[in-house]
Amino acid sequence: MSDESTPNTPAKQHPADIADQLEQLTTDEAAAALRALPAETASEVLTELDTEVANDIAAQLSNEELSSLLAELPHDAAADIAADLSPEQQVAVLAQLDPPESAKVSELMRYSEDSAGGIMRDTFIALPARLTVGEGLNLIRQRGEEEFQGVTYVYIVDEHGKLAGVVSIRDLVFRPPARRLAEVMNPRVHFVRVDTDQEEVARQFTQYHYMALPVVERDGRLVGLVEASQVIGVLQEEATEDMQLMVGVSGEESAHTPWRRAIGKRTPWLYVNLLTAFMAAAVIAWFENTLAQWTALAVFLPIIAGQGGNAGMQALTVTIRSMALGELDGDAARRVLMKELILGLLNGVAFGLTVGVIGYLWKGSFLLGLIVFLAMFLNMVAAAASGVLIPLALRALRFDPALSSSIFLTTVTDVAGFFFFLGLASLLIPLFGHV
Amino acid sequence: MSDESTPNTPAKQHPADIADQLEQLTTDEAAAALRALPAETASEVLTELDTEVANDIAAQLSNEELSSLLAELPHDAAADIAADLSPEQQVAVLAQLDPPESAKVSELMRYSEDSAGGIMRDTFIALPARLTVGEGLNLIRQRGEEEFQGVTYVYIVDEHGKLAGVVSIRDLVFRPPARRLAEVMNPRVHFVRVDTDQEEVARQFTQYHYMALPVVERDGRLVGLVEASQVIGVLQEEATEDMQLMVGVSGEESAHTPWRRAIGKRTPWLYVNLLTAFMAAAVIAWFENTLAQWTALAVFLPIIAGQGGNAGMQALTVTIRSMALGELDGDAARRVLMKELILGLLNGVAFGLTVGVIGYLWKGSFLLGLIVFLAMFLNMVAAAASGVLIPLALRALRFDPALSSSIFLTTVTDVAGFFFFLGLASLLIPLFGHV
């Protein structure tokens, strides 16, 4: 338990729950509610709010109010909030903090918010390797209760502050007090660098089940600590972002985001989708004569396009999820493309035959059946390939691989599906003179 | 760090990395590779494998091999593997464990694998409240190193083993040794019950940033501990499952799942999709005469259906993600439906006008523009409503709200889109006598 003040009894509300309630209010109401809370609670509520809501509320508060809230917070939480303020407000608010506090907050603000440096906290226990176990224990005894909250491991540093090893609290308590920390520490300590991406940090926690990882500067100096409980927040964020980005929704939006805020991020992608829909429509317009002669063809258009769209979404979703879990680096991408192509070929044959036979039986036309079979087969293969290649291409272009990928995918499956089907029809039907 | 044996040096591979490599092999090869490893490593690798792969390999191992591997594992990990064995193998393997070990593993197998009981570990430090701080410290000193790994908090129980409070290791070390634990403990300790769903456990960790939560039986007896590092695995699993279930892919599949295994789960849903595509096609077939007279209509079919599909996917994805995060209980669902309907109405007007004007300009027909406007408007509203109502309906029917919801959604947007558009056309065009 990181927060001993949270009982199961409803006597006192957790700041996270208060934040959920404030998110339902208008910015003015929320700012007023925040002002009515004791500073300690208000500051914690501020850190629990969705970023956008927190920014809006912060913009309503005076510099004095903001700095008194930030003063209550751990440096990393204060840095997160300060980083989102306007440059003028930032300077004014930081100037009102105690100079040493202000320096520590500014220090943390240097790191990108998606990096290990951006999510780490700077309260951890580091002891010089030259001390004895007994001396180390005495130093810890003198520290404030707060800094010790939830600490399980004590990190050992050399004379330059570089990470040298790790000791569990248990070892510290039960080893002979006269031994040097350098002797009892485990020198093989896993760590991340300040500039390690938070997704990679999360991947390491997922893969190796750490409870905490020390964070070092480029030169090896120990500067922070990331705990499993913080990584949980990162993972939830990243999962939300991936799911929502895929369909052109901001990672920040939740079901409770007011529609005024949601529309600004969603609608532009729907306009992109509209543009791509016109590309698909243009294919149909191109073949309007073919369609005018054999309107039965129109019945199969949505089947071929839709089936490709859904099969492609399967490949796309698995690919994006695997990328997020760090399973798709280097050579792996080629193997995954192979797997999806095999699935695409098999699905192409299976669904091509199914729908082709239905087409043949419906109109008693072998040619219609053949056209349907070929178009379905080709579109299923195109869908499978796109499901893997679209996120790979987005990643190579340094976009998020999930970014509106479902919109790009359905463009491919619609355009390709219509083109294969109507193209084959306009090519083959004149040869036979009938459907 | 939960695993001090993992250095940054590549000298020794982490069991999780070995597991990743085994997942690339055939079951026979993987079983052979596992046999070649020392029992301690092999057992850890077994727990790191994807469930399906682990089950396949376990089926290849003899009962003796399996029980010697399980004997190396923490009880909860052994229980997870044993739970997936065939009933005969289960009995035979458990019979070969030491009777007290076997009893503990069987005990844990009683809990559903998706519950707090299913993910908790049964090694934790519990001290009777009547002891003094000094006596408690002495008891801990006598415990094995392993059981203490990563423990930050010590739980205090009453004479019946019921959870009574919590003490940090720090308090234990630095408080006066003669004081009773009952006096120094914090009695307001947050906990979950063995039957709490793992998604709810994860939600509590996300909301309140716990490092660990004790798990109690229905009668309040302390029986286990869930740590943040375990919840990370649960969250990754749940996020994967939600994303992939939406498009008809099993939550177990990863990019590296062989196609033979993937096809069995994906293809049935594609057949469901095919069925629903035929429903959409049937709408077109129904209006084939209308379409034969005005083939220009066919050009707008994919635009209206596709635009509805993508807007609906936005509403659907946000709804499902919010459900997973526990934000959509009770009254909240109605508010979210309202939000999405407002967005649907606005998008309907915006895209209806855009596409309607284009339709009017293209063919110089006011009627075509009007039909396009109305159909687009209606389909956007239907899409928005379906995006919220489909997952709500699935949940009410006790399915996973994500279950193939994108397939159901595109059915609605295709069928409704075609029906609105062609229905309006067949109704209005005869009145005007032309398009």
Describe this structure in words.
A three-stranded mixed beta sheet of chain A has the order 1-2-3. Chain A has a three-stranded mixed beta sheet with strand order 4-5-6. The first copy, chain A, is mostly helical and 435 residues long. The first copy, chain A, contains 21 helices and six strands. Chain A has three domains: 15-110, MgtE N-terminal fold; 126-227, CBS-domain, CATH 3.10.580; 259-432, Orthogonal Bundle (Tetracycline Repressor, domain 2).
Topology:
Two copies of one chain form a homodimer.
Chain A: H1 15-22, H2 27-36, H3 39-48, H4 51-60, H5 63-72, H6 75-83, H7 87-95, H8 99-109, H9 116-119, E1 126-128, H10 133-142, H11 145-148, E2 153-157, E3 163-168, H12 169-174, H13 181-184, E4 192-193, H14 198-208, E5 212-216, E6 222-227, H15 228-246, H16 259-286, H17 288-293, H18 296-324, H19 332-363, H20 366-396, H21 405-432
Parallel strand pairs in A: 1-2, 4-5
Antiparallel strand pairs in A: 2-3, 5-6
Helix pairs in contact in A: 1-3, 2-4, 3-5, 5-6, 5-7, 6-8, 14-15, 16-21, 18-19, 18-20, 18-21, 19-20, 20-21
Show unreliable segments of chain A: 1-11
Helix content of chain A: 55-70%
- CATH domain class of the largest domain in chain A: Mainly Alpha
CATH fold descriptor of the largest domain in chain A: Tetracycline Repressor, domain 2
Quantity of strands of chain A, as a count: 6
Alpha-beta content class of chain A = mainly alpha
